[in-house]
């Protein structure tokens, strides 16, 4: 045998086992290494810092709830901006570190760290602000926004505001060498497999060829159909991005975000090039509410950027084989995304795309299932 | 946020949650990629192949139980060697692939694949042979031998034999550049942390220094105290290995293997060198039983080797700082290994070593806790 340590993975049934979810998901956030990675993301940090300190009127004398406080930084900032009380909820043992950080930064009279799942926590009062950094890859991976919605419905005053207040998912057509590289990896891996089948028959008298189809499927999924993390260069965009989902954080329900489906058109704006992938990313904005707007709006975008890349990067969905496209061609795209049956924090994405040439001719639509793991 | 997918990790309490265990452990074995890695290990494959086919008298007309059949190869061999019936038990969906393999190799009349945990499975009869490849890193990682013991006590006839029949754990003193490299990684990581603390204070008004101690501990554990997988060259051994545990697979109980403790002496047999680590590995032997011995004994060793390295390699426990040693010095070592409280398939190892110089002088003993993850 000899298996690598705890590799996560599917559970037997569709319902959520809290212990399994903890083992698979929350544990990652119990490492300071991972916290440091997020705290070193300048785009992320600047956005939240500016959102709080340029809109102090939302915090001065107010009660704040930080959902998933991690190291506690958003709670410290909320207190420094003048909050009367901050409840900082954290499911992992990181709560101990948050407590230490809050004490070391002299805001322990304002911030109360509560270790527990948001859904299990009891607060002594309703809150004016919910602040949370809940966004996963392509916005919804991790399904953490569910807990923020839960917190909002249970604990936010009717006049309360959400930080961030709005979120959007984007998709764009891109060119990239990643797909060629992954196709090469896939082919090498299949070639290894065929040698292995021959060797096993020759040396040990067992014919493994019956597993070739399953091996191919496993590796196609791994190399070609699982979205890739990448920080794309803006010059890799070969057409305008489209918004595939808009979320009002004050109004959205879990039903609104459980499944995402959108039809949209992506115009190609580059001469004779290759569509080798679709890229997905998100932005969030801090706008307060209509009744209670911010003084200065702040945006956090994870779009391809030269100077402002984030730890989220973009999710890249490879197109095999790449499609020759030209300026004024159009891609008609249908996207649907739902949660993986095996792990509700991962996503299955169906993408169907049809190329309409500038001549008016339409190519046959291509449908591919992708996995955000 | 943005966490990598399912990373396994600790659970809240000490008892074993079967669903968590499945998510953390078994899922790995549901990938053909991982099966191929094991099936490509020639040392492993040759040992089991020879053990079966050079001792056909143990299989001809007999009933065999294969615990954790994986792809099914040991079950196929058992059938090819003449077994009357083979029960091949597998906890993961790999059972489907095993069934296909067994059919493709025309042994479906003999081999019955049963999907389920060994502890939950009901067989229609007792068996003459239990065959299993249950060994993890440093033999006992994964704690899979528990299931083999359970199967033996419940299903093996009194006259039955175990394949393998014996196992041993070994430790040796080694020289290696790995420790310097890891110490360098650790120091780089701490230096990054100090920059991060300064930057966070300067840019965002939050003092993170209170977390420095915890960050250091987390990273010491990761870089310096977690045993490393390595295939050592035999010339890296600087003294004779010692046996720290012997297991008779026919007699051992779970109590016998739950905790391992041993005191032993390691003589240095190389002139002026450095003790930079201890290496741990195992071997297993196929000897049958006293009443029912094999015709030809086979050994599978994972010791450092030039031509016969295995996918298990050796586990390397780093010594910081390295110790200057000389020929005829002796290391007096006490080792104790127990299961991790957070995950019973991982191990905590305490190593205390005291150098006795050839002059008779003794250096102060050093005690270090290591983790096999």
From TrEMBL, chains A, B:
Domain of life: Eukaryota
Matches recorded under InterPro entries: Arg_MeTrfase, PRMT_dom, SAM-dependent_MTases_sf
Cross-referenced Pfam families: PrmA, PRMT_C
Protein arginine N-methyltransferase domain: residues covered: 184-356
Record's keyword terms, sorted: Methyltransferase, S-adenosyl-L-methionine, Transferase
Protein known as: Protein arginine N-methyltransferase PRMT10
Record-linked SUPFAM superfamilies: S-adenosyl-L-methionine-dependent methyltransferases
Source species: Platanthera guangdongensis
Keyword S-adenosyl-L-methionine: yes
Taxonomic lineage: Eukaryota, Viridiplantae, Streptophyta, Embryophyta, Tracheophyta
Keyword S-adenosyl-L-methionine: yes
